[in-house]
Specification:
The chain is of the alpha+beta class. The protein is built from three helices and four strands; from the N terminus they run αββαβαβ.
Length: 98
């Protein structure tokens, strides 16, 4: 799941803590998937029907309880994606976490 990504043990622990109560699909994306890059925030995509702002804030807050690294959380309803959102998602490399 998170074996071949550029996250240290503390970041992995914080990420798993942040999403522990989420039953929706959660994906890691962005530069943290490339072991040859450096730096960068942690980018998550969550497919959920929950309120996107509330869920994003919940995950971000829970993550910061354990780790003070930058994190971006995008929440989308998989069943109600716009054409632009569908096109954007097709460009992404995603690693499923949950």
């Amino acid at each position: 799941m998170l074996e071949n990504v550029r996250l240290d043990a503390a970041e992995k622990n914080a990420l798993m803590y942040a999403i522990k109560d989420i039953s929706d699909e959660v994906y890691l994306l962005g530069s943290r998937l490339d072991n040859y890059k450096r730096g960068g925030d942690i980018d998550l995509l969550i497919f959920s029907k929950q309120n996107s702002l509330n869920l994003s804030l919940q995950v971000t807050r829970n993550f910061f309880i354990k780790c003070e690294e930058k994190i971006d959380v995008l929440v989308l309803d998989k069943d109600n994606l716009s054409k632009v959102e569908k096109a954007f998602i097709k460009t992404l490399k995603l690693v499923k976490i949950n």
